[in-house]
Write a structure and sequence with these properties.
This protein has 3 helices and no strands. The protein has 116 residues and is mostly helical. The chain has one domain. Helix 2 runs antiparallel to helix 3.
C-alpha cells in the first residue's frame, strides 16, 4: 500500500491511544477545575445568604430611623413656621415633636438592636 492510502485510512492504534490518553488528562483537569469553581460558587452563595439575612435584620432598624428623621424634619418645619409667625405655641409644639423623634431614634438604636 502506498503512504497516501495509509494516511487516508487514519491514525494508527498507537496514535489513537495517545489521543485517548491526552483526552483523559484534559477530562481530569476539567473535573478538577469544575470542582474548584463549584466550591467557590458555593462559598460565594453562602456569603450572599449571610449578607441577605443581615440586610433583612437591619431593614426594620432603617425604617424606624427613617421615621425618627422624618419627625425631626417636621419639627424643624413647625419651628420655622412658629418663628416666622412669632407664635410660641408652634415653637413649643416643634420642641415636643423633636423630643419624641429623638426618643424614637435613641430607642431604635439602643433598645431594639437586632441580635447578631
Amino acid at each position: 500500500m502506498s503512504k497516501e492510502l495509509i494516511d487516508h485510512l487514519g491514525p494508527s492504534r498507537s496514535d489513537k491511544a495517545a489521543q485517548l490518553a491526552a483526552m483523559d488528562e484534559q477530562l481530569a483537569r476539567y473535573e478538577i477545575e469544575k470542582n474548584d469553581i463549584k466550591a467557590t460558587a458555593e462559598a460565594a452563595e453562602k456569603e450572599r445568604a449571610e449578607e441577605q439575612k443581615l440586610s433583612e435584620d437591619n431593614q426594620g432598624l432603617a425604617t424606624r430611623l427613617g421615621h425618627a428623621v422624618l419627625g425631626l424634619q417636621i419639627a424643624v418645619a413647625v419651628a420655622s413656621v412658629g418663628l416666622v409667625t412669632k407664635k410660641k405655641s408652634l415653637w413649643h409644639t416643634s420642641l415636643f415633636i423633636a423630643a419624641v423623634a429623638t426618643v424614637w431614634m435613641v430607642w431604635s438604636l439602643v433598645v431594639n438592636v437586632p441580635p447578631r
